[in-house]
């Protein structure tokens, strides 16, 4: 009786043992969903201190029967860092003077000393600590409030949240090192042969805005704007972009000003649209969406087979042309009895006529889905859930620049902390390895 009363007062969902699913999901990841790997032997770097330790048997005779055992050697490693990091403190004694005649001030300079490093800001942290702190927030997704605690725990150096915010804004300013690298990335993306783009919701100063992302295998450019129109797309790509744009079915990409840009519509979005309509149909009304899905999936499998090295380009093009002909026949202009199927025929058929559905069958360098852009925006979506996005337009500019640079460093196989520290001291943006 008491158990029944307690059960009635619970606000959470009931336990699974009381009311479970008819078919329970098997624990673990499904087969083929990611690689299953074990930790390998660590790569020894020049700065590492390696200790060779031999672990020998106390007795080479079998403890059970006394026979001599066959001895072999196994290898195991343990990698760790000292509990207390070795800090480097540079203490500058700077000579300053004043001219008794005109009152002009003079100050000695040093490459490791900022020109404005005196007075209230005389004691600062170096580029490595700055890079580590900024990487934790903008790349790893740690909230800004928790970053000082993480830095103090790992290095013993104290920071403040406001100091990090001010330093990030200074670095991402128009003439700052990160701001300069960001402008270079925006210029570089205009020359890319294929760019995937997508957008998600954002807030700037509490008002709705859009976070846009433009991605290639080797760079990422983020942009935060109040609206998402073709003007904002052309702001990044330029008015005469000659490459291929991978997109979803957003209206911004259907503007007249982008008609001259070759586009590849995401097949995953098309398949989802077809499945949503198919669920509501019965009988012969399901045939149209079912056949279209079969053709699109056949095209996807063909591209995946070519990417895995399963066929030559000549065969890829031949089979691709057959699929194109099949899809052209299925999307021929005609009157359909079902209104939803007619709408799909008109919409997808128009995209096919413009060459935006199976463009990847001509050039396999083009990806058939927009998964690259969606994965590129995913970290920002997670950051949005644990923050209030951008407090003002300056903060939005800082986020888009910093996020673009750290993501590009990761895409190019660089250590994000080391790459960011190099940029802070004035070195150029690393190229792809």
Structure description:
- By secondary structure, this protein is of the alpha/beta class.
- The strands form two sheets. A five-stranded mixed β-sheet has the order 5-4-3-6-7.
- A hairpin with a 2-residue loop joins strand 3 and strand 4.
- Helix 5 packs across helix 12.
- The protein has a domain at 281-361.
- It has 13 helices and seven strands.
Task: Give a quick summary of the entry.
With 433 residues, the chain is an alpha/beta fold. It is 40% helix and 10% strand. The protein has a domain at 281-361.
What structural keywords apply?
433 residues, alpha/beta, two-stranded antiparallel sheet, 13 helices, 7 strands, flat
**Mean pLDDT metric:** 89
Largest sheet: 5 strands, mixed
Percent helix range:
25-40%
Count all strands and give the number.
7
- Oligomeric state, counting identical vs distinct chains: single chain
Number of helices: 13
Rg over CA atoms, rounded to whole Å, is 30 Å
Terminal residue distance: 68 Å
Quote the beta fraction.
Answer: 5-15%
- Which H/E pattern describes the elements? HEEHHHHEEEHEEHHHHHHH
Strand order of the largest sheet: 5-4-3-6-7
Unreliable runs = 11-16
């Amino acid at each position: 009786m008491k158990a029944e009363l307690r059960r009635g007062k619970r606000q959470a969902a009931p336990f699974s043992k009381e009311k479970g699913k008819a078919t329970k999901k098997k624990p673990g990841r499904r087969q083929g969903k990611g690689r299953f790997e074990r930790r390998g032997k660590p790569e020894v770097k020049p700065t590492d201190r390696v200790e060779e330790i031999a672990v020998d048997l106390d007795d080479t005779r079998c403890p059970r029967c006394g026979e001599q055992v066959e001895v072999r050697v196994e290898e195991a490693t343990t990698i760790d860092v000292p509990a207390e990091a070795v800090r480097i403190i540079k203490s500058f004694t700077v000579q300053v003077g004043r001219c008794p005649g005109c009152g002009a001030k003079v100050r000695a300079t040093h490459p490791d000393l900022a020109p404005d490093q005196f007075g209230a800001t005389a004691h600062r942290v170096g580029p490595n600590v700055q890079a580590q702190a900024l990487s934790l927030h903008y790349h790893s997704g740690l909230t800004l409030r928790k970053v000082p605690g993480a830095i103090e725990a790992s290095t013993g150096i104290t920071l403040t949240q406001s100091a990090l915010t001010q330093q990030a804004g200074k670095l991402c300013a128009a003439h700052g090192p990160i701001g300069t690298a960001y402008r270079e990335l925006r210029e570089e993306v205009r020359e890319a042969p294929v760019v995937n783009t997508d957008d998600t919701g954002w807030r700037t100063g509490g008002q709705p805005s859009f976070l846009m992302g433009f991605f290639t295998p080797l760079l990422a450019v983020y942009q935060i704007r109040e609206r998402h129109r073709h003007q904002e797309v052309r702001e990044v790509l330029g008015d005469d972009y000659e490459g291929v744009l991978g997109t979803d079915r957003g209206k911004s990409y259907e503007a007249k000003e982008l008609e001259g840009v070759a586009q590849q519509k995401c097949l995953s979005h098309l398949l989802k649209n077809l499945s949503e309509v198919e669920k509501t149909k019965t009988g012969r009304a399901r045939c149209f969406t079912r056949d279209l899905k079969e053709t699109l999936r056949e095209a996807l499998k063909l591209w995946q087979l070519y990417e895995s090295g399963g066929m030559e380009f000549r065969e890829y093009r031949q089979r691709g042309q057959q699929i194109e002909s099949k899809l052209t026949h299925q999307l021929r202009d005609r009157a359909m009895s079902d209104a939803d199927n007619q709408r799909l025929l008109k919409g997808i058929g128009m995209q096919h006529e413009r060459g935006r559905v199976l463009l990847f069958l001509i050039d396999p360098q083009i990806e058939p889905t927009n998964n690259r852009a969606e994965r590129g925006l995913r970290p920002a979506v997670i950051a949005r859930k644990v923050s209030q996005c951008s407090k003002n337009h300056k903060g939005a500019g800082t986020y888009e620049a910093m996020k673009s640079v750290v993501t590009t460093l990761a895409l190019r196989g660089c250590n994000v902390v080391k790459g960011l520290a190099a940029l802070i001291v004035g070195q150029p943006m690393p190229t792809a390895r």
